[in-house]
Amino acid sequence: MQSEIRVVEKATCTFCGCVCDDIDLTVDRGRIVKAKNACVLGKAWFLDHTIDDSRPEALVGGAPATAALAIEEAVRILAAARYPVVYGLSDTTSEAQRAAVEIADLAGACLDTTTSVCHGPSGIAFEMVGEATCTLGEIKNRADLVIFWGSNPAESHPRHFTKYSVTPKGMFVPNGRKSRYVVLVDVRKTPSARAADLFVQIKPCQDFEVLWALRSLVKGVDVDAGIEAETGVPLATLRALAERMKRAKFGVLLFGMGLAMTRGKHYNAAAILALARDLNRYTRFVAKPMRGHGNVTGADNVVSWSTGYPFGVNFGRGYPRFNPGEFTTVDLLVRGEADAALIIAADPAANFPQPAIEHLKRIPVIVLDPVLSETARIARVVFTTGVYGINVAGTVYRMDDVPIRLRPALPSRYPSDEEILKGIARRLRELRAERGCA
Amino acid sequence: MTRLASPDDRAVSDMLTVCNGRVYDPTNGVDGAIQTIAVKAGRVVRLDEVDAAARTIDARGMVVFPGGVDLHSHIAGPKVNSARKMRPEDHRRARPVPRTLVTRSGVLGSNPSTFATGYTYATLGYTTVFDAAVPPLGARHAHEELQDTPIIDKGFFVLMGNNEFAFRCLKVRETDKLVDFAAWLLGAAKGYAIKLVNPGGVEVWKDTGHNVARIDDPVEAFGVTPRQIIVGLADAATELGLPHPIHIHANNLGLGGNWLTTLETMKALEGRRAHLAHIQFHSYGGEPGGRLASAVPDLVEYVNGHVNITVDVGQVVFGDTTSITGDGPLGYYLHGITGRKWFNGDVELEAGCGIVPFRYKHRSAVHTLQWAIGLEWLLLTQDPWRIALSTDHPNGGSFMSYPDIIRLLMDREFRKAEMRRVNQKALAKTRLPELDREYTPYEIAIITRAAPARILGLARKGHLGPGADADIAIYDGRDDLPSAFAAPRYVIKAGEVVVEDGEIRRDLRGRLYYVEPDFDPAIEPEIRRWFADFYTVEFENYPVGIEYLPNAERLSARGSRATRTG
Amino acid sequence: MGDKASLEYREVTRTVRMNPDDMRRVGVENGSKVRLRNALAEIEVTCVSAKDELPPGVLFIAYGPESSKLLAGDTHGTGMPDSKGIEVELVVPGRA
Hints:
The complex is a heterotrimer.
Chain A: E1 5-11, E2 23-28, E3 31-36, H1 40-47, E4 58-60, E5 63-65, H2 67-80, E6 84-88, H3 94-107, E7 110-113, H4 120-129, E8 130-134, H5 136-142, E9 145-149, H6 153-156, H7 160-165, E10 181-186, E11 198-201, H8 207-218, H9 227-231, H10 235-247, E12 250-255, H11 257-260, H12 266-279, E13 284-289, H13 296-307, E14 313-314, E15 321-322, H14 329-334, E16 340-344, H15 348-351, H16 354-362, E17 365-369, H17 374-377, E18 381-384, E19 395-397, E20 403-405, H18 417-434
Parallel strand pairs in A: 6-7, 6-16, 9-10, 9-12, 10-11, 12-13, 16-17, 17-18
Antiparallel strand pairs in A: 1-2, 2-3, 4-5, 4-18, 7-14, 14-15, 19-20
Chain B: E1 15-25, E2 30-40, E3 43-45, E4 55-58, E5 63-66, E6 68-73, H1 78-86, H2 88-93, H3 114-123, E7 126-134, H4 139-147, E8 153-159, H5 164-171, H6 175-189, E9 193-197, H7 201-208, H8 226-239, E10 246-249, H9 259-268, E11 274-276, E12 284-286, E13 292-294, H10 296-305, E14 309-312, E15 319-325, H11 328-338, E16 342-346, E17 354-360, H12 365-380, E18 387-388, H13 402-410, H14 412-419, H15 424-428, H16 441-456, E19 472-475, H17 481-484, E20 490-493, E21 496-500, E22 503-504, E23 512-515, H18 524-534, E24 552-555
Parallel strand pairs in B: 1-4, 1-5, 6-7, 7-8, 8-9, 9-10, 10-11, 11-14, 14-18, 23-24
Antiparallel strand pairs in B: 1-2, 2-3, 5-19, 12-13, 15-17, 16-17, 19-20, 20-21, 21-22
Chain C: H1 7-12, E1 15-18, H2 20-26, E2 32-37, E3 42-49, E4 59-61, H3 65-68, E5 89-91
Parallel strand pairs in C: 1-3
Antiparallel strand pairs in C: 1-4, 2-3, 2-5
């Protein structure tokens, strides 16, 4: 085969929530051999991508099947189920997410995304408090105080520091790093601490107390020195930090799983959102969750515009209802309520609590995934689909809600998630129309 | 005669006649005459162009209106979606929207989900709706949401009044460059018109947490004033020959004494076409933080005498709603006075937004004044062709309240009964109690159809003459016409019966209107540098491609920009 | 998202990091196998020194299939399982 090297410029990497769209991909003989500007995670994402054309386009009951047959089986499962759940969606395009919402609507299913086990608590906090926020370019152009809380961008979002939050020279921050003061607050002194001017180590499960103390101090209400024994953070440190926050020109709080996953969850997120809000009395301040997967933000957006709610949705009464804890997937599985699952671009069988995985093994599962994931291994129906951003075009939403188009580099013989989901939706609609039900 | 259609069904015939109804078509001077409207292939046609195969709707005793046109609403895009996300309680309290064989499910409240938005507008007889404010960085998002907003034809206005590149052009008075930039930006976003929201003020908020109040207040970081922004971009809209003129949410919204800002804004626009949005919020006498008063008579006098200015009302409706605005500092101010949850979203280099739940109360003096001021505008304006009905949905109230407002205009007794429920001292400070005028159906058709269509520059909307899009609303007004506006008997969209007796019969995809004016490509290298220096997305990835517009119509911008190759 | 079958991923998600003083105190060699145990599960992982990263009493293991075995299913109405600040017993083989 003749060597044909081509370059796809300004491609978008969807590995993490940075969604960098300045990647130049060099493609040689059907492989991506170079990913200019990509970080270590992005390079792995692009370069480790292998095309395994040998996998069947679908599996039903472990045996190879055509996509059409697999769609029939998937539709049969969803139509027969009394309490199905549609889950996942963080690693696929918004076009596919929209089709998944339609399926959930038609099937009267629960609809949930990986948000519920990631920044779902931050979403709940958003509903309680609101959010003072901005797009990442505002941080680049204005921020002179950047505080990371319970987040380790050096390992989870490697280009965040250099592209957005720490080193870039911005319009009103012309000296870049020199114009900024960077703080890291965490239980662990992670590699991100090297980027910080100040590292504040906090005892596990004490974030809420520290955040609330900061809120008090910002408002001029003093805090008991006993806070140090409780949280590991001296009062003097907190007082200094509160002052620094009030004196910043534009401050940013960026928070991760260190808040969402630990004791307090949405109360931690509410506290940090409230802190940023309070600071706007003195200066400009924002708070942003550090979103993980490439298009989990897109999932939030698509589910919100279609249903009014961001995750943990149920269509069982014929219209959307929302209740984290009731309609969220871990709960549906742990309580043994879901009787079928459609899992798209996610791998709950790998990472969910054991009781949830055990139940998942007991119910019919339909999976769409480019690879044979843990969840695919236990599924009744498996679709092999193309990889978004590498094979498949479409739209993704960056961690700050900025929508970005994908530039795929390689063709794939497999259909996209969108195609399969639209096929399922169409057949489900036909089946229900035949039966005379909405 | 009626049947439930599945989305893939084709009508038996693409011809339709609406017979025996009283037609109100102000664009064509029809004031209640009994006329037959003939439809073929989605357009209104002459009677002799349809034959016996046409489906017939007998509209005896009913009134026939063109489909409603809402030229200022907040229905799609980043800030609207943030409002949806932020207020699950608002959705839960509202009547649900269950799926049917034909429609998707959804939620209502002050920020309905996208499917519910399209269906609900349609069930009110509205067939064209424009979103008032989208930051170009989020245009792709607005397009995706509009794809999921069924039935209605639509488009949106592109925020430019706090665009930092535009500021740079204005500072050095590079008018041509500003015009080219505006053209490029409209095309990149696939938007419809140039929108200013608190021009300069949002930049001041992002920079310092403060605001501007008057149009000569400085935007320090960029060395420009709101006046320069207003005039510069109004001239750009004119120069580009855009179908809709500059659309302005003026500085100083909501504060006592702001009528002076509004007046100076209008005077700055002398000789230029301009549309001032939700004028009610900009018509306050008195002092900031002090007693509010109505300044409507003075402003109406100005607008009556200056035909270059059009307005939409922004009528307040008592009850719960959400304030969603591109006016960042306004959002913070409302959060401060209400204490309710607050969303603020600053968009790099371009715009901002603020979202706060809000409740307008009958007994509140301020809210009563606001309510009365909107009605004063509607009842005092001499030329109904230059005032469009709106609530600045959802800021003043939901678009679902349009029928109630129509009732207030048409039915003096109903208005009086409403006036008895409000704060009487505040009401007495306005001229509303003495205004006896009742709107005729013809005038209602003007302010809800013909005028907004004309102001938008949509020649095939808002009327029922041959060539018009067959967007028709048929109301059964035998007993009580004003109430009938809440529930049309039939709504026809592009010649298809989409609503019958309050039910959606067909789910259609409406059309997206946009402009993409020519510009001098010599500006591109400078825009590229701008992106490289300050944006966090790539210049190449910024414009919205045509793949986001599955059913779109590009309107021509009849400007003087030369088309150059390359 | 990446290939979970990759060797690197398996290694990272089967490694627990520990404060070196704690390691000395309980007699764990850097790179040796230990078990983490709670009411739900017992997993075998490799223990490495966290240098100055962790305070005493705190272990770190990357979110993955192994660590998830220690997560209980109760989300307390939030949808999110308790995924941090989980108490475990560290079992040193030969010293149980």
